[in-house]
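Running this now, will post back.
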Amino acid sequence: MKKLMEKYAVFERAMNRDKVYLDLSFEEICSAIGADVETLDKLLLSEIGLGGQETVDFYRSKFC
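Update: finished.
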């Protein structure tokens, strides 16, 4: 679980600081940070109520 939370933190930094949502899909972001797509998707859903691609789409709609 610790490694998963580390990947979650890396995802969060990539989204907020690096703005990867501008150019990459959720699957591409997961690949870039070395996270399993399904596992991170489930964690995002449980933590924030949005799946992975939904999170990327949300950022695009709010910050683009």
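The helical segments are 2-16, 26-33, 37-48, 52-63. More later if anyone needs it.
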